[in-house]
Amino acid sequence: MELEIYQVDAFSTRPFSGNPAAVCITPQGLETALMQQIAEEMAVSETAFLNLADNNLRWFTPQAEVDLCGHGTLATAHILRQNGRLAQGAAITFHTLSGPLTATAVPQGIELDFPLLTPTMQPEAPAELLKALGLAHEQVSGYGLFGAKQLVVVEDAQVVYALKPDFAALRALPGRGVAVTAPGQNEYDCVSRYFAPWVGVNEDPVTGSAHCALAAYWSTRLGKRSLTAYQASPRGGVLALALREKGRVLIGGGAHTVLVGTLRL
């Protein structure tokens, strides 16, 4: 079996930045076990699998399937546009574990229509979580949950940049992923980093799905419906966020294809 495979740096317009995603496009669906093996082989934070027969889109880390992935969806739409399957200004709707997700080819890149995930704020963050992240209690101004994931708010962007979590300690705690965020500087409304050692991704370079919650939190706090977000991982990435009606958020960004090949199985 031969499959077309790509690697795309998403939420960036240049190589070696943003979040790398593998994209595998097939005329028919693949077995789940095979997709998981391919994702492990590709060894990037997410591998996206698009079945052209029904536009079913699935995403796998090297260790697990996930139910929502922004950069994998953006990378898939980028490849469809690159290959002439998605025209400029046109949209495509993918069928996913998170319901229908639409991607539109816009001049600045790809714009995703995703669900807005309003975090449920809690009285305080678990002490064990803060210790594993390397945060002191007094540095934290807010803590919330969005699904199985966690949001930690601090007030100094430099604290976010300087984080050095203990990933073994994080894995020993309940969780799926944790975003640490702060008010932005200069052109950015907010900055963040995202850690998910529970699914085999110690630090995700740029996380579209986490920004479904970050958009909700910062929009309310700043009183703005359009935001520019920066994910301050070593690779870094910029996301344009715009709240829409009926609990949706538009997440926009660029992409750059770094690898085109054939997967031989």
From TrEMBL:
<dbReference type="Pfam" id="PF02567">
    <property type="entry name" value="PhzC-PhzF"/>
</dbReference>
<dbReference type="InterPro" id="IPR003719">
    <property type="entry name" value="Phenazine_PhzF-like"/>
</dbReference>
<protein>
    <submittedName>
        <fullName>Phenazine biosynthesis protein PhzF</fullName>
    </submittedName>
</protein>
<keyword id="KW-0413">Isomerase</keyword>
<comment type="similarity">
    <text>Belongs to the PhzF family.</text>
</comment>
